Amino acid sequence: MNNKIKKILKKKNKSKIVCLTAYSKNIAEIVDDHADIVLVGDSLGSVLYNYDTTRKVSLNMMIEHTKSARMGVKKSLLVIDLPYNTYRNKSEALKNSKRSIKETKCDAVKVEGGTRVKEIVKHLVKNRIPVLGHIGVTPQTTKGKFRSKGKNEVEKRKLLKDAQDLEQSGAFGIVLECIYSDISKQITNSINIPTIGIGASVNCDGQVLVTDDLIGLNETNFRFVKKFGNIKKYIKNAVIKYKNSVKQRKFPSKKNSY
Ligand code: KIV
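^ thats the input. predicted complex w/ 3-methyl-2-oxobutanoic acid below
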């Protein structure tokens, strides 16, 4: 097993796992110093391309962004999201996972779904592809507005079974997206692999956020997002300073000229 994955597994019940997204080298480089996992999420479809659904994201797009992120990631585990319709059956999933890992040199793939994808996950793991699962709100298969999961007993039982099936299939961890605190606690306590929450409470073994959201570059009003910074303000200030320097003929100076 990959040493980085071993280290992540050892963190369960000991210290929190930090996961963040990166879609390119410069952000990946910053995040890499502080995260255990860097995820090239298909959220890039909405964050960078303004798509109304992640279903429009292609494998080629994911591969190009992961190649860029790879240049910035030295120590964290680099995970690529397999986009919609790229893992509909075992052979398609294996072919696309192998291609993704070969072309990007990433460490693992992430797939959405629980019980529904358990045979696919088993097949990937059998073929030495490390897999991160993703249950709860799964944007690739959610139509319409996202609604948190696990409110009633039927949903709770399903989420628990999804998580247990993913563990049994050999996934090394599971992203829990937008699920109620009590069931995220129950899942986290009932499996031996780490849970990584996004909108799934502090009860998870780790947390993940979209970096563009937390630095205030991407505007979003999801309840689970906290803005930890306002990078837009800094960019704006630099752009205004540049504009003024150009207009006042202060830039480029002799120092910046040949
Ligand atoms: O696509 C993504 O960025 C994700 C995370 C939000 C978990 O799946």
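Residues 21, 39, 41-43, 81, 134, 175, 198, 208, 210 surround 3-methyl-2-oxobutanoic acid (CB under 6 Å).
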